[in-house]
Amino acid sequence: MLVGVLGDLHGRAFLGLLVALEWQRRNGRRFDLIVQVGDLGKPEPDPNDPHVRLDPAEADLGRLLGASGRRAENLRRASTLLPVPISFVRGNHDDPAWLESLASDGPADPFGIFEYVRDGTTRTVADLNVGFLGGVEEETGPAGLDLAALDRIATLGPGTVDLLVTHQGPYGTSTGFRGEIHGSPTISRLVEQLEPRWLVAGHAHTLHGPRAFGRTMYLGVDCIVCSPRWFPDVTTLQPGCLGVLDTASGSFLPVLDPWLSALDRRVDFDAYLESLSELS
User: Would you say residue 102 lies in a domain?
Assistant: First the structure.
């Protein structure tokens, strides 16, 4: 089974879709499952947010939801190239009211590109048991960890979940520029209790792993682009914003291929979709 893992998008829905489709095109294989680790974005970002003014792509989630005409046709075609909708968990920069309005089982957009998976959900995809948990430990309210959902997953017991998808990684996964240690002690305890074979997360906007935490192999994927506020001259995508798990071979690696870091965030998305041919 082939699983794609997309990092934080912060509204850049078209770029996330492009990265997944381009990996499939270059490798001649389709993913069986694609997960996105949270902070998908807000359908209506604050127009006064300086980040949105610096990178208009942060409003692309809203553009996807309201697409019509040529773009709608392209998105409908793109959805046929995906195995199933991209499953995403709750981040700490998503719109809680929008998430609450979404169906528990079903697409989050008119084209079946994305699907919201609520905290505490477990699913079996082919022979892979997958658990989902959003939020971050440092936050309270809608952005925080749902401890009741966390407990529901924890009580399943060791070995019952093969792949655990969280927004925040375990404690000690990276260090911030102020020297603070990233990661959640609560997620660390969950991993110790559950002992999933694989764990994927984002949130930190840095590539980490693959790294073993006990019996669990962890991969923290990068954000799809670096901050235009701090790196205004960098217009390409981030290596490691996509990870690939091949359960047959056990390979669990970030994508660092040159084509990824050569992709420009200003790509003509519609022209790209129209250039794709069906995978055999």
Answer: yes
User: What pLDDT was estimated at residue 230?
Assistant: 74
- Domain assignment of residue 280, yes or no: no
Quick: pLDDT tens for 12-23.
999 999 999 999
188: domain CATH number is 3.60.21.10
Domain extent for 159: 2-275
Predicted pLDDT of residue 60 = 95
The confidence score (pLDDT) of residue 176 equals: 67
Greater model confidence, 112 or 175: 112
* Three-state SS sequence of the chain: CEEEEECCCCCCHHHHHHHHHHHHHHHCCCCCEEEECCCCCCCCCCCCCHHHHHCHHHHHHHHHHCCCHHHHHHHHHHHHCCCCCEEECCCCCCCHHHHHHCCCCCCCCCCCCEEECCCCCEEEECCEEEEEECCECCCCHHHECCHHHHHHHHCCCCCCCCEEEECCCECCCCECCCCCECCEHHHHHHHHHHCCCEEEECCCCCCEEEEEECCEEEEECCCCCCCCCCCCCCCECCCCCEEEEECCCCEEEECCCHHHHHCECCCCHHHHHHHCCCCC
Any domain includes 34: yes
Q: How far apart are CA 80 and CA 77, in angstroms?
A: 5
The tens digit of pLDDT for each residue in 129-151 reads: 999 999 999 998 999 999 999 99
